[in-house]
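hi! just following up on the protien thing from before. the input was this:
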Amino acid sequence: MFAPNSFINQPLPADVPIDPTSDAVVATLAAHSKPTSLNYQNWSCRLYIVGPNVPTQKVFFDKEEPEAAKVAMLEAVPIPPAFKAPGPWLAAGGTDGDHHVAIWQPSTNRYWDFWKMRHLPEDGPNTGLPNLSAEFKEQRGWHCKEAGFCENVSTNPGYFDTSSRAGVTESKAWGGSASGNFLGALLITADEARAGYIPHALRFQVTEGYERNSHRWPAHKHDSTDTTSDPAALQLGSCFTFPSSMTFTSIEDPVAKAIAVAIRDYGMYATEKGGNGAFKCQCESTREGSETYGKDGWKGPENKVGGAGAALRTEPSLFLAEIDWSKLRLVDSSYRPASIAPGMLGRG
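and the predicted 3d structure came back as:
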């Protein structure tokens, strides 16, 4: 989806620079924010890959004074017939309040992502906007509270910037994620888990309360309300990796090994905060023929970990415990994929 030399797709060099505070920050992560689950149902992202002839619809931007550029980018969004609203999906008992959705249209090379996407009248009106007019708030159709749009996504570096949309000069508030990174990027898919191979960087959420009130590249915003300046706290945008010499021979679960290898080769990026440390995955309910809560890929038709056709052989909380998170290293903020010189990508 993104440029081959983006931070998403470009392998880390074997001698990637390590942050001087790495030991302290990794200790915080290992103690409080190490990933213990995969978000593939609640708190995941619905990623839709749509064809060239999908009819477009207007998405209403529910802000009191929405930016004109954002309103314009939502005038014609290709929403497929099988598109499902996050609301009904949660009616069975889910607790996801983010309602993350991403849409990629390869034929136009365009991408959209959304936070708190709802459809009226099925899902009811968005709340928490007391100064929004009732006429707009109750307008039938798709609504969202935040969004991002990218043109020429195949050459994009992997995050919203001023090159993402023509005529836009300010980008820090764009995108549906807390960090401003693409919601549809860095996701683990059930197919990758089943194959035991993840050829890109990963994204994870840090445990709320252990993040710093700041961010670093490739994040361009954060939503932390904490005021800590503790250098051992985590910043959104931080990239962690394992030493290039690690081989993970002691890890038995194939999904756990695939995750560890991807972290070693591409890195894992902190892109949001949440109730626990977790990797973000593609919600399986976006796949054609899938059932509510993804009963087709991650848990298979039996809706059972370890069942026939399931990508997961054991529960994520168990196989993620096989990974020694204390061995992580915090990549220095000076690192950029463009700084990689020829011959530096070999892993041996």
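The chain has a mean pLDDT of 79.
The first helix runs from residue 22 to 33.
cheers
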